[in-house]
Amino acid sequence: MTRYYALPALSLRSVAVWRRHFLVWKKLAIPSILGNLADPLIVLFGLGYGLGAALGETGGTSYFGFLAGGFMASTTMYAATFESLFSAYSRMHVQKTWEAIVNAPMTLEDVLAGEWAWAATKALAAGACILVIVAVTGNASFPLALAAIPVTVLIGLAFAALGLSVNAVASGYDFFSYYMTLLLTPMMMLSGVFFPLERLPETVQAVSRALPLYHGVELTRPLLAGIWPANALLHVAVLAAYAIAGFYLATILTRRRLLK
Predict the structure, then answer these.
(1) What is residue 196's predicted lDDT score, i.e. its pLDDT?
(2) What dihedral angle (degrees, nearest 10) is formed by the CA atoms of 42, 212, 89, 71?
(3) pLDDT for 182-193, tens place per residue?
């Protein structure tokens, strides 16, 4: 029983797992990137320019500029989540890729760490693409906007860890709809992506400030605007705590599932 709760023994062998996923992804890189960006870009441009024409300025900037920071964080969240749920589950349960890897000189922790890092990499790619598009529209202030790139990595690590935790208890692909619908969708609505958090009731604001996406938005939005975020260290610390605690939980749950 105690082996389930031991701290993960991480090693550089996880880099080989990351590289394996990269080589597979490289064959379908363009469709993968377009698939991850299609929905958020449609909503960003549709709401940013369509609804923005009626709303005018929001939070001291255009509504498109306001949405851009929120969508950079939320797109990163969804990219990490999809990779750590659907793709990881396919490799773990359907394709038996994890089983094949651990037959080499690899441990389960190496596989999990590789999955974690790879999901964060997919999140980084999605966030970087959003940054390029926002920059082209003139809604990113450089050079400070570049600081949003490492933030996307941290957001990716946080949500990849949470996704791997859910993956460890999933009974099938349909199981993920509960997580996506009951947790991620409300989180997106309550984290200041679409409207300023100050417009919500105080009780709801208190709940929102405990959500990881809120802290991601609070970092990316001012950085894109060329402003250093208020309470930046607090936001970074909360995201790091979600990432570390989430990966430890994923390790425990995955051990309980696979090391019986």
Answers:
(1) 83
(2) 10
(3) 999 999 888 888
